[in-house]
Design brief:
- This protein is an alpha/beta fold.
- It is built from 15 helices and 17 strands.
- The strands form 2 sheets. Strands 7, 8, 9, 10, 11, 12, 13, 14, 15, 16 and 17 form an 11-stranded mixed beta sheet that branches. Strands 3-2-1-4-5-6 form a 6-stranded parallel beta sheet, with helices on both faces.
- It is elongated.
- It binds L-homoserine.
- The site of L-homoserine has 7 residues, from α8.
């Protein structure tokens, strides 16, 4: 049987890794796929560089549409990124009857519904293992390995840049801005790191996992997103003293409603810094590594760990999709693994909950004037709101502004579970107290048990 012919759009870090791994392991991959898989055509704006990477046997062009138009190409790999031209090209490849492999989480999290519908109508596959957590086969785990389960929640460290920054902040006791500069110098963070540090990249990935876990459409616009830019070294230190580590988590959870409390069923979809107990394995995932915890009703808790980015780790996921497509392309589309795990006509319309509806516990830090009654006033507001306190810590503030007229102290409070909307009101009331001297820090806490 002649090899499957693959066209590659964009040969950057992941594209060149894909080409190299496919060439290096071609015999094993052929034995697994049942057919050879070859990249025979590459489109890249930098034709010279592309040619130097792939050698003389591969056709190199600067026009992606020439790849899509080539009738010999069975599968198109899109590694251009972004929502712009990549979207147009993916839709054109589908329309031309090509299967598509992409690492583009932004594209699928925002336009996935349109893209998957187009692919289903045309009977082609769109595979995206590389879009979430790089080399970790989490899409396959969710869509296939865990398919027996009613998934209850997923929590993941799914952005390596921010995990690297948080690890450095903790190890070196440095503030965010200092570590970000260092991460950029070392090449861990992009020159424009906005998507990473503001939690957008993690939210793209959490959106895809949420859709697959719960059989809902991709709904990036409903995700709550908070990055790590406001975290201070003090909070990381206090969290450690209380037995917790701060991680940026992408969380999606099934919330069983309670009609007696006026709570509807729903799905939580959120990205924000979290305190998690140091004793959890995921709390010890350091540096640029990724990890995802999945809780299913039958399997219990499972953990997936590995490199979430990089040339060959991401290529590993891209090639797994090429092999999958090669194995399945002759199968009746109805009996292939569906794009989002559930059959397209069996999707749920359960709603993504607004953040105010989410129930979780909290870490609060208040910089207060060290004077009689301040703690009573603060805890009084929480009691009044029906928010139960789990622990309180009072620490002399490390850096008290020069010339401060009053002695200052940090009050750190851990709460039990409460509704986010109630906590927002309580924080606003505490913030209005004259003895509260700075904006209150609030970090959500997840036990992940
Ligand atoms: N920028 C991402 C990260 C890698 O830092 O994890 C690609 O998704």
């Amino acid at each position: 049987m002649k090899p499957v012919q693959v066209g590659l759009l964009g040969i950057g870090v992941v594209g060149s890794g894909t080409f190299n791994v496919l060439a290096r392991n071609q015999q094993e991959i052929k034995r697994r796929a049942g057919r050879g898989i070859e990249i025979t055509m590459v489109a890249d704006l930098n034709v010279e560089r592309a040619r130097s990477l792939v050698g003389p046997d591969v056709q190199v062009v600067n026009d992606a549409r020439a790849v899509i138009a080539n009738p010999d190409i069975d599968i198109v790999i899109e590694l251009i990124g972004g929502y712009g031209i990549a979207k147009t090209l993916v839709l054109e490849a589908i329309a031309a009857g090509k299967h598509v492999v992409t690492a583009n989480k932004a594209l699928l999290a925002v336009h996935g519904t349109e893209i998957f519908a187009a692919a289903s109508a045309k009977g082609v596959m769109v595979a995206f293992e590389a879009a979430v957590a790089g080399g970790i086969p989490i899409i396959k785990a969710l869509r296939e390995g865990l398919t027996a389960n009613r998934i209850q929640w997923i929590a993941g460290i799914i952005n390596g840049t921010t995990n690297f920054i948080l690890s450095e902040m903790r190890d070196k006791g440095l503030d965010f801005d200092v570590v970000l500069k260092e991460a950029q110098r070392l090449g861990y963070a992009e020159a424009d790191p906005t998507f990473d540090i503001e939690g957008v990249d993690a939210a793209h990935k959490a959106t895809l996992m949420s859709a697959i876990a719960f059989g809902v459409p991709v709904q990036f616009d409903k995700a709550y997103i908070e990055g790590i830019t406001k975290l201070g070294a003090a909070d990381i230190k206090y969290a450690e003293q209380l037995g917790y580590r701060i991680k940026l988590l992408g969380i999606t959870k099934r919330r069983q409603g309670d009609a007696t409390k006026g709570q509807p069923d729903g799905i939580e979809l959120r990205v924000h810094p979290c305190l998690i107990p140091v004793k959890r394995l995921i709390a010890n995932v350091e540096g640029a590594m990724n990890a995802v915890v999945v809780q299913g009703d039958a399997v219990g808790t499972t953990l997936y760990y590995g490199k979430g980015a990089g040339s060959e780790p991401t290529a590993s996921a891209v090639i797994a999709d090429l092999v999958d497509i090669t194995r399945l392309q002759s199968a009746d589309p109805l009996h292939r693994v569906p794009h989002l795990a559930f059959q397209p006509n069996a999707m749920s319309d359960i709603k993504v909950l607004p953040m105010g509806e989410v129930v979780t516990s909290y870490y609060l830090r208040l910089r207060v004037a060290d004077e009689t009654g301040v703690l009573a006033r603060v805890t009084g507001i929480l009691a009044e709101a029906g928010i139960s306190i789990d622990a309180v810590l009072q620490r002399e503030a490390d850096e008290v502004s020069a010339g401060a007229k009053v002695a200052q102290t940090d009050v750190i409070i851990l709460t039990h579970d409460c509704q986010e909307a109630k906590m927002n009101t309580a924080i606003a009331q505490m913030q209005a107290l004259p003895s509260v001297l700075q904006p209150i820090t609030r970090i959500r806490k997840e036990e992940l048990a």
